[in-house]
Amino acid sequence: MYNNKIFYLIFTLALTISITIHAAEAAEPLTLSVSNDIYYAGDYVVVFGQVDTIFENMPVIIRIHHESNLVEVAQVEVAKDGTYVKSFNASGGQWVNEGIYQVSAVYSTQTTEKTFEFFGKMADTDSAAYPVNIPNSGTFNVGYTITGGDLNQITMNKDRNSLLLDTTIVSNGNLILKLPRESFDSQTGNTEDEIFIILISKGANTPESFEQVQYEEVGTSSEYRTIRIPLEDGDRFIEVVGTYVIPEFGSIVMMILLAATASAIIISKSKFSIKYN
Q1: 3-state secondary structure of 134
Q2: Which pairing describes strands 38-40 and 110-119: parallel, antiparallel, or unpaired?
Q3: Whose CA is closest to 122, among 98, 100, 86?
Q4: CB 29 within 8 A of CB 52
Q5: Residues in the chain with pLDDT < 70?
Q6: For residue range 84-100, what is the model confidence (pLDDT) as tens digits?
Q7: What is the value of pTM for the model shown?
Q8: Strand (E) positions, the chain?
């Protein structure tokens, strides 16, 4: 009986060690991804990933090469959750050769690599301000720049605190949105900025067809937040979910209401004076 207990103890210990070793081997200490497999001149190459162990004050070193030529290099800070992200604009003197590009990430003693294709032909670009209808309150403008396709329509969904964009995307590209804070934003209860949720569907406008994607915030001010969303060939609907959309009774309605109230008061006073003076 005693020997059997020893045997089961050793067996359990060995099994635990084996599971631990396999789990350690399965966990990648450094991951690396790029937003697209194909880029064109003027696109933004978004590089992102995660580290398994965070070392204080140690950045991730990202390098982009074409053959033996160094095209870009950057030191990227690691967030508290171990993630990192960096955007490179594929333009300028270093981005001259078409072909396969290698992007590498180095963190401590860990190194990982990815590749993507680059083409010099500039994708068609469309840029404008799109007026979004507010129920019973006029419109507000959302600035946008899109490469790889066209923006057809933007509608507001007050129930979901979101903007739904209908697009036609024929090649990989980017969508840049300039969002006015007073009309649409994502914040916590103490007015600190919160992330937007970006959902993309390649087909129908149905809940099950949408998938969440990453985006990059490229500009922030007291009046606007500007975000960049990578696009792929075939993307159709894009939903940007925040925490706030302008109320139904917006500034225009309130101005009309105040004007009407003031007029009613003036008329009432005038009638009062005529009747009793």
Answers
A1: coil
A2: parallel
A3: 98
A4: yes
A5: 1-27, 121-127, 247-277
A6: 999 999 988 899 888 89
A7: 0.53
A8: 33-34, 38-40, 44-50, 60-66, 69-76, 83-89, 99-107, 110-119, 125-133, 139-147, 149-157, 162-169, 173-180, 184-185, 197-201, 210-213, 216-220, 224-231, 237-241, 244-245
